[in-house]
Amino acid sequence: MSRDQNAGRIHSVRIDNSAFERVEEFKYLGTIYFVFQVAIEKISKVKIYRSIILPVVLYGYETWSLTLREERKLRVFENMVLRRIFGPTRDEITGEWRRLHNEELNDLYCSHNIVRVIKPRRMRWAGHVARMGEERGVYEALVG
Protein backbone atom coordinates (compact mmCIF):
# COMPACT_ATOMS: atom_id res chain seq x y z
CA MET A 1 0.00 0.00 0.00
CA SER A 2 1.22 3.46 -0.72
CA ARG A 3 0.43 6.20 1.77
CA ASP A 4 0.47 9.96 1.59
CA GLN A 5 2.84 10.97 4.40
CA ASN A 6 0.97 14.20 5.16
CA ALA A 7 -2.55 12.84 5.45
CA GLY A 8 -1.84 9.21 6.32
CA ARG A 9 -4.56 8.09 3.91
CA ILE A 10 -4.25 5.13 1.58
CA HIS A 11 -4.21 6.16 -2.09
CA SER A 12 -3.87 2.76 -3.68
CA VAL A 13 -3.82 -0.88 -2.69
CA ARG A 14 -1.61 -3.40 -4.43
CA ILE A 15 -2.67 -7.05 -4.43
CA ASP A 16 -0.30 -9.38 -6.26
CA ASN A 17 0.44 -7.45 -9.45
CA SER A 18 -2.81 -5.46 -9.54
CA ALA A 19 -3.13 -1.93 -8.17
CA PHE A 20 -6.47 -0.53 -7.01
CA GLU A 21 -6.77 3.21 -6.50
CA ARG A 22 -8.87 4.86 -3.82
CA VAL A 23 -11.96 6.58 -5.23
CA GLU A 24 -14.65 8.85 -3.82
CA GLU A 25 -17.44 7.17 -5.79
CA PHE A 26 -17.88 4.02 -7.84
CA LYS A 27 -20.54 2.38 -9.97
CA TYR A 28 -21.76 -1.14 -9.16
CA LEU A 29 -24.63 -2.84 -10.98
CA GLY A 30 -25.81 0.47 -12.38
CA THR A 31 -25.89 2.31 -9.03
CA ILE A 32 -23.37 4.96 -8.03
CA TYR A 33 -22.04 4.56 -4.48
CA PHE A 34 -20.23 7.30 -2.56
CA VAL A 35 -17.39 6.47 -0.16
CA PHE A 36 -17.43 8.64 2.95
CA GLN A 37 -14.18 9.38 4.75
CA VAL A 38 -15.81 9.77 8.16
CA ALA A 39 -15.64 6.62 10.29
CA ILE A 40 -18.80 5.28 11.87
CA GLU A 41 -18.97 6.34 15.49
CA LYS A 42 -18.85 3.70 18.20
CA ILE A 43 -22.44 4.40 19.21
CA SER A 44 -23.58 3.66 15.67
CA LYS A 45 -21.53 0.48 15.62
CA VAL A 46 -23.18 -0.67 18.85
CA LYS A 47 -26.61 0.07 17.33
CA ILE A 48 -25.69 -1.97 14.27
CA TYR A 49 -24.55 -4.82 16.52
CA ARG A 50 -27.81 -4.76 18.49
CA SER A 51 -30.13 -4.41 15.51
CA ILE A 52 -28.46 -6.56 12.84
CA ILE A 53 -25.81 -8.89 14.21
CA LEU A 54 -27.48 -9.93 17.47
CA PRO A 55 -30.79 -11.03 15.87
CA VAL A 56 -28.90 -13.12 13.31
CA VAL A 57 -26.80 -14.79 16.01
CA LEU A 58 -29.84 -15.41 18.21
CA TYR A 59 -32.07 -16.80 15.46
CA GLY A 60 -34.11 -19.67 16.90
CA TYR A 61 -32.73 -19.20 20.44
CA GLU A 62 -36.10 -20.12 21.94
CA THR A 63 -35.51 -23.78 21.19
CA TRP A 64 -31.84 -23.94 22.16
CA SER A 65 -30.76 -26.03 25.11
CA LEU A 66 -27.88 -23.83 26.25
CA THR A 67 -25.02 -25.66 27.89
CA LEU A 68 -22.27 -23.86 29.78
CA ARG A 69 -19.95 -24.47 26.85
CA GLU A 70 -22.36 -22.80 24.41
CA GLU A 71 -22.91 -19.90 26.81
CA ARG A 72 -19.15 -19.39 26.96
CA LYS A 73 -18.89 -19.45 23.15
CA LEU A 74 -21.61 -16.81 22.89
CA ARG A 75 -19.84 -14.58 25.45
CA VAL A 76 -16.53 -15.01 23.61
CA PHE A 77 -18.21 -14.03 20.34
CA GLU A 78 -19.81 -10.97 21.90
CA ASN A 79 -16.54 -9.86 23.51
CA MET A 80 -14.77 -10.29 20.17
CA VAL A 81 -17.33 -8.04 18.44
CA LEU A 82 -17.17 -5.45 21.23
CA ARG A 83 -13.37 -5.40 21.08
CA ARG A 84 -13.61 -4.65 17.36
CA ILE A 85 -16.10 -1.84 18.06
CA PHE A 86 -14.30 -0.16 20.95
CA GLY A 87 -10.76 -0.91 19.79
CA PRO A 88 -7.62 -1.01 21.93
CA THR A 89 -6.82 1.39 24.74
CA ARG A 90 -3.59 3.02 25.79
CA ASP A 91 -2.25 1.85 29.15
CA GLU A 92 -1.92 4.81 31.53
CA ILE A 93 1.28 3.53 33.16
CA THR A 94 3.32 2.13 30.28
CA GLY A 95 1.74 4.13 27.44
CA GLU A 96 1.44 0.98 25.31
CA TRP A 97 -1.67 -0.11 23.47
CA ARG A 98 -3.51 -3.11 24.86
CA ARG A 99 -6.76 -5.03 24.42
CA LEU A 100 -9.67 -4.12 26.64
CA HIS A 101 -10.41 -6.51 29.50
CA ASN A 102 -13.85 -8.13 29.74
CA GLU A 103 -14.85 -5.91 32.67
CA GLU A 104 -13.91 -2.80 30.67
CA LEU A 105 -15.98 -4.04 27.73
CA ASN A 106 -18.97 -4.58 30.02
CA ASP A 107 -18.62 -1.03 31.36
CA LEU A 108 -18.40 0.46 27.86
CA TYR A 109 -21.25 -1.64 26.42
CA CYS A 110 -23.69 -0.67 29.20
CA SER A 111 -26.05 -3.54 28.45
CA HIS A 112 -26.61 -7.12 29.52
CA ASN A 113 -24.35 -9.73 28.02
CA ILE A 114 -25.75 -12.01 25.35
CA VAL A 115 -26.61 -14.86 27.73
CA ARG A 116 -28.52 -12.53 30.06
CA VAL A 117 -30.53 -11.44 27.03
CA ILE A 118 -31.40 -14.99 25.97
CA LYS A 119 -32.63 -16.42 29.27
CA PRO A 120 -35.53 -14.01 29.99
CA ARG A 121 -36.61 -14.12 26.35
CA ARG A 122 -36.72 -17.92 26.46
CA MET A 123 -38.85 -17.80 29.60
CA ARG A 124 -41.22 -15.31 27.93
CA TRP A 125 -41.49 -17.62 24.90
CA ALA A 126 -42.14 -20.63 27.15
CA GLY A 127 -44.97 -18.66 28.79
CA HIS A 128 -46.55 -18.00 25.39
CA VAL A 129 -46.31 -21.67 24.44
CA ALA A 130 -47.72 -22.81 27.80
CA ARG A 131 -50.80 -20.65 27.20
CA MET A 132 -51.35 -22.08 23.70
CA GLY A 133 -52.95 -25.28 24.89
CA GLU A 134 -52.13 -28.95 24.68
CA GLU A 135 -53.49 -29.45 21.16
CA ARG A 136 -50.72 -27.33 19.59
CA GLY A 137 -47.58 -29.06 18.32
CA VAL A 138 -45.30 -26.40 19.77
CA TYR A 139 -46.68 -27.09 23.25
CA GLU A 140 -45.97 -30.81 22.86
CA ALA A 141 -42.41 -30.02 21.78
CA LEU A 142 -41.90 -27.81 24.83
CA VAL A 143 -43.14 -30.28 27.43
CA GLY A 144 -41.89 -33.35 25.56
Question: If you had to describe this structure to a student in words, what would you say it looks like?
Answer:
This protein is of the alpha+beta class and 144 residues long. It folds into two domains: 2-34, no CATH class; 42-143, no CATH class. It contains five helices and seven strands; from the N terminus they run βββββααββααα. The chain has helices spanning 42-57, 68-86, 102-109, 114-132, 137-143, and strands at 2-3, 10-15, 18-21, 25-28, 31-34, 89-90, 97-98. The strands form three sheets. Strands 1-2-3 form a three-stranded antiparallel β-sheet, with no helix packed on it. Helix 1 (42-57) runs antiparallel to helix 2 and helix 2 crosses helix 3 (102-109). The longest helix has 19 residues, at 68-86. The chain starts with a strand and ends with a helix.
Task: Give a short summary of the structure.
The protein is of the alpha+beta class and 144 residues long. It is built from 5 helices and 7 strands; from the N terminus they run E-E-E-E-E-H-H-E-E-H-H-H.
Globally, the shape reads extended
- Overall residue-averaged pLDDT value: 82
Strand content: 15-25%
Strand line-up of the largest beta sheet: 1-2-3
Helix content: 40-55%
In whole angstroms, how far apart are the ends? 59 Å
What's the tally of helices?
A: 5
- What is the N-to-C order of secondary-structure elements (H for helix, E for strand)? EEEEEHHEEHHH
Radius of gyration from the CA trace? Answer: 23 Å
User: What number of structural domains do the residues give?
Assistant: 2
User: Which structural class matches the secondary elements?
Assistant: alpha+beta
The description of the largest β-sheet is: 3 strands, antiparallel
